[in-house]
Specification:
Largest sheet of chain A: 6 strands, mixed
Strand order of the largest sheet of chain A: 6-7-8-3-9-10
Shape of chain A: globular
Low-confidence stretches of chain C: none
Order of helices and strands of chain A: EEEHEEHEHHHEHEHEE
Shape of chain C: elongated
Strand content of chain A: 25-35%
CATH class of chain A: Alpha Beta
Radius of gyration of chain A: 17 Å
Chains: A alpha/beta, B alpha+beta, C alpha+beta
Low-confidence stretches of chain A: 1-7
Number of helices of chain A: 7
Radius of gyration of chain C: 30 Å
Distance between the termini of chain C: 23 Å
Helix content of chain A: 25-40%
Distance between the termini of chain A: 37 Å
Largest sheet of chain C: 11 strands, mixed
Order of helices and strands of chain C: HHEEHEEEHEHEHEEEHEEHEHHHHHH
Number of domains of chain C: 2
Number of strands of chain A: 10
Strand content of chain C: 15-25%
Oligomer: heterotrimer
């Protein structure tokens, strides 16, 4: 699972002139306005900003959950801003791992089955799927919680299962939306340490939305968004 | 403290697809129940309204219907002469009638069905003042002519104005008139001249039944005693109302039992639907309910609030079902009446009672289906407000 | 873990709701089968009727009888017509005054031939002999004998409005000589048979030598209709004409009078299916609504709308199958052991054989699944069309 860490400053995410409008009750709201952003491969960067600043919208665009109104988004050399829904879904399943504030695990599945879920979209055989899921759970330190259901785990453990689910497909990019928002200080620290490790040891590029300054401190770089623009 | 009704209405509206599905389920149950009751009422009214309180009907002892009975002509005269029978001048008010059934082809459906034919004289009209000719004219005495009841008109081959059918080979009977009788069972009969019917069927010398008008409804018991006293006659007397009530019993019971049984099973299904909906609605509102509890609403008012919601839901369905069933008012339901072996056309008769029963049943479904979920809601702890 | 397993687990996740839904579907299946069994039981008298038997009756009305000489007329022409046996019967319309509320059929039949021509009525040899021997003897259905507690040798008095006794002091009395059973499921096992000759002895002179209807067995069942026409032609220019139908058509013409009831039962069967669909659709829709963020998560991970739709439909299949299976498991004991037994014993004239037709059981199970799928289409569509970013915003 370890990849060769490339220390040269290669740009993974290249965003140029990205604008996002929403129609809300007949009125057009500009959520993001002509944003430019570069994120280097293998870096751990944070997005901060007050509520409604557009940070989650930006994260969603980078993760391929949504498309910009205008502008270009290039990730690992691929333009995703004009991809159709089907192509985006396929791209996400190969390139992006998701980490959510409320973990979003399937309550009917055990920890290892939750981790296995994204692999159902790949041609990987059943026995191999299980093996990879177990490996990912070992990486996040939950080898002894494989057959527990989410409700039998603590919040920190749930989030680590979610992280295992995110890395099991070996994505280049991990996006995390308030990953520590629901956690106590200690669990939050553990999760941030884990993310840091994934970045340093496995070369994952991590983009994290947070409004916790302590969390942002763990990132190598923090971008501040306000009313749809970066603050200098 | 009572939670305002608007809260329930809004919550039903917010989840309108589920609300609609549940209400439609209840509406279907109420529709089936109310239609069955309306039909059963239609049977009772159709057969029942043929009877008059001051008319007695005399049949052969042991027969359950006119069709099975036979009374010799001399006995007819004896019956009519009995004390208690009203007299119009010198002539006692009585009518000896012959009833047979004939097989006719059904129009718009395959197969043959049995139609009741009544052989009458002038006296039959005197006894039934409600009979009115609505098209054409009365059949002339002694002629091979017939009048058909309005409900039969056009339903069987040969039974429309100007058409003809056979009582016997090479003896066509022409339909010259259409009559109605205030919705009674006679409207599902064909009336011909009694002597024409008797000669066609080789039944000269006897009739099926004798009807007499009594001085008053109260003189019936004395009249009956007189008729049944003479064992040699072998006859029995009944009030016409009682006779028709018995005629309608089997069919009306059959329909209301069948209908209620079906509706009972249906309501179990729909109630489960309502219960499911209410449970889901409450599960989704744990935090909301917890907040209400924290604000100081009592368990009782929460219980009441959700019961009201369930009842609103089921009443909406019940009202819809009742309205749907009213549309059955224009449908004619034709079936063999068990007692007379002939086809009678019934209507779905809505009554305020039936509508009330439908609404009460739908409300009961709401209360039964909503009670357990409401109890669960009432047991919600105020702490639920704090949980995610 | 597989995708199918995942769908199945979603179907079962809310145990209480699943249990309620399964119960709802099961009740619908039982009700549906009850209705279909009633219709089938009622109509199968026509379906199972003997195809080689011809019933000849008065053309105009069933309440009038035919002259006895018509029997001889048909018999003498039998070889030419393709008929191998003729018998006859009359409807007596009897009632046991001791059991006033009980309805059962009473028929006066030609004792020497009737049971030979109607082989589905099974009578023991010695019983038949004893019956033929005794002019006032009777053979009754085993169900009727059991219900009214009649024993062999018992004297029974019946009243009839159609045939009042000539002398009121001398009512119709019979001696029960034994019972018949049935080989075919459509046969009413509560009929009372006695000698037509005994009836003929006791009626007024004008009503002597009259029979209700003739029954002829034809040599070639494929030609029954033609034989019927030929029989009717025999009497075409006589005073009384006849109408000959094969037994099936004869029974069907009786059912024609109840076609509206059968139609209503058909309609009501559809209504219960609609209720079942609403209950299922509701459950599935609620499940989908509660899982909004889970579905959005799956979409984020890369699952396509079609995957989501399939998992919802798969869930519905599981619910439909469990509910349908449970319904069948209840329906068999309830209908065949409980209600069916009761109806066969007490309303044998209408429901001689009240059992679930096997194809109907398969159909009910299939319908439970098919309607579950149909009911899940709308929820599946809305789940598949959900916007991922909005779904994620809603906190689980």
């Amino acid at each position: 699972m370890t990849t060769n860490v490339d220390r040269t400053a290669e740009v993974l995410i290249r965003i140029r002139g990205v604008t996002k409008d929403y129609a809300r009750g007949g009125e057009v709201v500009k959520v993001l306005e002509a944003l430019d952003l570069d994120v280097n491969r293998g870096s751990f960067e944070a997005l901060m900003g007050p509520s409604g600043s557009g940070k989650t919208t930006l994260l969603n665009l980078i993760a391929g959950l949504d498309s910009p109104t205008s502008g270009t988004i290039e990730i690992d050399g691929q333009r995703i801003d004009r991809m159709g829904e089907g192509a985006l879904a396929k791209w996400r399943s190969n390139h992006v791992g998701f980490i959510f504030q409320s973990y979003n695990l399937m309550p009917v599945l055990t920890a290892v089955e939750n981790v296995e879920l994204p692999l159902l979209l790949t041609p990987v055989r059943a026995s191999e799927r299980r093996k990879r899921a177990e490996t990912a759970l070992r990486v996040v330190g939950l080898a002894d919680r494989m057959s527990h259901y989410p409700r039998q785990l603590s919040g920190g453990q749930e989030q680590r299962v979610a992280i295992a689910r995110a890395i099991v497909i070996d994505p280049v990019l991990l996006v995390a939306d308030e990953p520590t928002g629901d956690l106590d200080r200690q669990s939050a620290d553990d999760v941030l340490t884990l993310l840091d490790r994934l970045c340093k040891e496995m070369g994952k590029t991590i983009l994290m939305v947070t409004h916790d300054p302590a969390a942002a401190d763990r990132a190598s770089l923090t971008h501040h968004l306000d009313k749809g623009r970066f603050r200098a | 403290m009572i939670i305002p009704l608007r809260y329930n209405l809004r919550s039903l509206f917010v989840r309108r697809a589920t609300t609609a599905a549940t209400a439609i389920g209840i509406a279907l149950v109420v529709f089936v129940l109310s239609s069955a009751l309306m039909l059963s009422e239609g049977v009772r009214r159709t057969l029942g309204s043929a009877g008059k309180a001051d008319v007695a009907i005399v049949l052969r002892k042991g027969s359950s219907a006119e069709l099975e009975s036979g009374v010799e002509d001399p006995q007819v005269a004896l019956v009519k002469a009995m004390p208690g029978v009203r007299r119009a001048g010198a002539e006692p008010a009585g009518s000896g009638e012959v009833v047979v059934v004939i097989a006719l082809e059904k129009l718009g459906a395959s197969g043959v069905t049995n139609v009741g034919v009544r052989g009458v004289l002038e006296a039959a009209f005197t006894l039934r003042p409600d009979v009115r000719v609505v098209a054409g004219r009365r059949a002339a005495p002694g002629a091979d002519e017939a009048m058909v009841g309005i409900r039969l008109r056009g339903r069987m081959k040969g039974l429309d104005l100007g058409q003809s059918f056979e009582l016997k080979k090479n003896r066509p009977v022409q339909v010259v008139g259409v009559f109605d009788d205030g919705g009674s069972a006679h409207e599902s009969e064909v009336w011909v001249d009694r002597e024409v019917l008797r000669s066609s069927f080789g039944r000269e010398g006897s009739v099926s039944s004798v009807r007499v008008r009594l001085d008053s409804p109260a003189s019936f018991e004395a009249f009956r005693a007189n008729v049944e006293q003479d064992k040699r006659l072998g006859l029995m007397a009944q009030r016409e109302t009682a006779y028709y009530e018995k005629q309608s019993e089997g069919t009306s019971l059959f329909i209301s039992v069948l209908g209620s049984l079906v509706a009972f099973f249906f309501s179990l299904g729909a109630m489960i639907g309502a219960m499911n909906t209410m449970y889901a609605s409450i599960a989704n509102r744990q935090r909301e309910i917890g907040t209400m509890r924290a604000l100081g609403f009592s368990r009782t008012s929460i219980l009441f609030c959700f019961l009201v919601e369930a009842v609103l839901l089921s009443l909406a369905g019940g009202a819809l079902g009742a309205v749907l069933s009213l549309a059955m008012g224009s449908v004619r339901f034709s079936m063999i009446n068990f007692a007379s072996f002939s086809e009678v056309v019934f209507r779905f008769e809505p009554t305020p009672q039936i509508l009330a029963v439908s609404l009460v049943v739908s409300m009961a479904m709401g209360v039964l289906g909503g009670f357990l979920p409401a109890v669960r809601a009432a047991r919600t702890s105020p702490l639920a407000a704090m949980r995610g | 873990m597989t995708f199918v397993g995942f769908a199945a687990r979603n179907a079962l996740r809310n145990k209480f709701r699943t249990a309620l839904t399964v119960l709802g579907v099961a009740i619908a299946v039982v009700t549906f089968l009850l209705l279909r069994t009633a219709v089938a039981s009622w109509t199968q008298a026509a379906d199972f009727a003997a195809r080689d038997r011809l019933v000849t009756r008065h053309k105009v009305t069933f309440i009038m009888s035919l002259p006895l000489r018509y029997v001889d007329a048909v018999r003498s022409e039998a070889p030419r017509l393709g008929i191998k046996g003729v018998t006859w019967a009359s409807w007596f319309g009897g009632k046991d005054p001791a059991h006033d509320g009980e309805f059962f059929a009473t028929m006066a039949v030609d004792a020497p031939t009737y049971f030979e021509e109607v082989p589905e009525l099974v009578v023991a040899k010695d019983v038949l002999a004893a019956f033929k021997e005794d002019r006032s003897g009777a053979i009754v259905g085993d169900a009727l004998a059991a219900k009214l507690g009649w024993k062999v040798g018992q004297r029974v008095t019946l009243e009839s409005g159609i045939f009042p006794p000539e002398d009121p002091e001398k009512p119709w009395t019979f001696t029960v000589r034994g019972v018949y059973t049935a080989t075919a499921r459509n046969v009413d096992r509560s009929t009372f048979f006695f000698h037509w000759a005994y009836l003929n002895d006791g009626v007024a002179p004008v009503r002597k030598d009259q029979v209700g209807w003739l029954m002829s067995r034809v040599t070639d069942p494929a030609r029954t209709a033609d034989v019927g026409l030929a029989v009717d032609r025999l009497f075409d220019d006589k005073e009384i004409q006849t109408l000959s139908q094969d037994e099936r058509a004869f029974n069907q013409s009786f059912l024609a009078g109840f076609s509206a009831v059968l139609g209503a039962l058909d309609l009501v069967s559809v209504v219960i299916l609609a209720i079942m669909m609403l209950v299922l659709g509701n459950t599935i829709a609620m499940g989908v609504r509660e899982r909004t963020s889970e579905i959005a998560t799956m979409r984020a991970i890369g699952f396509l709308p079609k995957h989501i739709a399939l998992s919802v439909i798969g869930e519905a299949c599981v619910l439909g199958a469990i509910g349908g299976g449970f319904g069948l498991a209840i329906a068999y004991p309830f209908i065949e052991r409980g209600l069916g037994r009761f109806l066969e014993e007490n309303m044998g004239a209408f429901f001689p054989y009240f059992r679930i037709p096997t194809p109907m059981a398969f159909a009910a199970f299939g319908l439970a699944i098919a309607l579950a799928v149909l009911a899940s289409i709308l929820p599946a569509r809305s789940a598949a069309r959900m916007r991922v970013t909005e779904g994620l915003r809603r906190v689980a």
